[in-house]
Amino acid sequence: MPIENERKFVLSLGFDPAELHGWTRSEIRQAYLDDGPRLRATDGAFSFTYKRWIPDVGELVEIETELTEEDFALLWSQRISQVTKTRYHKRDVSGDWVVDFLCDGANATYFVIAEVEMPRGVTSPMIVPAEISAHIVHRVGIDDKRFTNKRLADVGVAARLYTEIAAESWG
Description:
Blueprint: E1 3-4, E2 6-11, E3 24-33, E4 38-42, E5 45-54, E6 59-67, H1 69-76, E7 79-92, E8 95-103, E9 109-117, H2 130-133, E10 136-139, H3 149-152, H4 155-170
Antiparallel strand pairs: 1-6, 2-9, 2-10, 3-4, 3-7, 4-5, 5-6, 7-8, 8-9
C-alpha cells in the first residue's frame, strides 16, 4: 500500500529559485474535484490521485494513476479549485525533496513551500538541504492541515498563513 510520509517547510516568499543549483525543474497545473481527488499535469504527463487519512494507524494512503490527456481534460472541467506551480526536485539521503513556487494568475509567486517525502516510519529528515535551510520560516507540524496544496490554492488563505506564521514567531 502506498503510504505518504512527508514533512513540510514554509520558505520565505523572497526565496530565489536560482539557489536551487542541480535541482530538476517542472511546471505543474493541479486541480481538485469536489469529492477530494487531485488532478495534475506535469510537463505533458497527466495523473489522478486519491488520498485518504487512516486515523487508526496515523498514515495517509496515496493512490496515483496516469490519465490520458483526453480524460484529464474531461475531469479538469469539473475542478473546484486549482493551483499553478513551478516545482524543483532533488533526491538525497533524507528522501525526495521538492520546493514549490505557487503562482497566481499573473504568474507572480505568492507562496513557497518545501517538502520531503521520506520512507515509511521515518519521522524527520536526516538533513535539510543547505540551499533551503536558511530560508525556512516555519516547520509545519505533522498534524497541521493548514498547509495542504488544496488550501494553498486560495491566494488569500496563503497570504493569511504567512501572517499567522509571522505572528507565531513573534508571539
